[in-house]
Structure formats: C-alpha cells, structure tokens
Specification:
The chain has 108 residues and is mainly alpha-helical. Helix content is 76%, strand content 0%. The protein contains four helices and no strands. Helix 2 runs parallel beside helix 4 and helix 3 packs antiparallel against helix 4. The chain starts with a helix and ends with a helix.
Length: 108
C-alpha cells in the first residue's frame, strides 16, 4: 500500500472514531453540557469532521486547513485534560493535517 493510501486510511479511521465519540457524548448527556463542553461546539466539530471525511473520501484538497487546527486549540486550551473525546478529536485533527500535507505534495 502506498504512503498516501495509508495516510488517507488513517485520516478516515480517526475522523470516523471522533465522529462516533461525539455522537456517544451527545447521546450520554441530557443538556449537551458536560465538563464545560458545549453542544454547539461539538456540533460545529461534527460538521467540520463530516466535511473532512467527504473531502478525504473524494481525494480532494482541504481548502481551509486552519479550521481543523482550531479544534485542537480549543480542546487543549479549555477542555478537561486527557478525555477520550478530546483525544479522538485531536487524533482526527492530526491525521487530517497529515492528509492535507500529502495531497498538497501529491497535487504539486
């Protein structure tokens, strides 16, 4: 398997994992708030991850990569440390950035 294909697969798997964790978190809380994490922020993250999944599946370039780096900044700055939800979103962000770098190189 080529390097690009591995990076693409890792990105898709981590995005899917983060989406599942967001859904589980939202379903487990009545008011969408737990540990100072707002429902609206999670819905924003979910929308970004769904868009990333679609772009990665289609082997498209992610135009505004900084939108995904924003997720990590919010998590590191204001969320409780070392949560499964936060770690899964950070992993997705990392793999989305790796995918972005590789497809940018590939497309020259």
């Amino acid at each position: 398997m080529a390097k690009f294909d591995i990076i693409k697969r890792n990105a898709l798997e981590s995005v899917e994992n983060a989406l599942q964790n967001i859904e589980s978190y939202l379903n487990a809380t009545q008011d969408g708030l737990k540990d100072h994490i707002s429902k609206s922020l999670l819905m924003d993250f979910k929308d970004k991850l769904l868009k990333a999944r679609s772009l990665i599946t289609q082997k498209e370039l992610i135009a505004r990569i900084e939108d995904y780096r924003f997720m990590g900044r919010v998590i590191v700055d204001s969320w409780p440390k070392n949560t499964m939800l936060g770690n899964s979103i950070l992993a997705a962000e990392r793999n989305i950035c790796k995918y972005h770098k590789e497809i940018t190189i590939k497309n020259g």
